[in-house]
Design a protein that fits this description.
32% of the residues lie in helices and 25% in strands. The chain has 124 residues and is of the alpha+beta class. A hairpin with a 2-residue loop joins strand 2 and strand 3. Helix 2 packs across helix 3.
Amino acid sequence: MDVQASWRANARAWFARALEDPASARFPVIDVAGTIVASAIGTLEIGVPNPHCPRGRLVRLANVVTVPEHRGQGFGTAVVRDVVAWARSIDADRVDLSATPDGQRIYERVGFISTRAPRMKLVL
């Protein structure tokens, strides 16, 4: 199986599982005249409790997208607020994200703050 087919198959399986458990993921969308123009994904991550995450319940906010012709109308802010409200409803300790410079003002408007923690990764 090629890389494209592999990740797509894995993504389909992941979304199918996530849709069965509304406490594990959230997928808000904004529809305008039958077309989705904005969306986001929130996923619950369970980790070791620590001083910054006392219950070990972290929501990861990702894939916040508004199609270009619908930007500046509050749709991005609305889907972010939806994920934050969901995070509160499932007793998460915090919501984390990686912001692009273009999206930073949306997150700041909702109350996110920048951190000094560097981001690193190791692809396996």
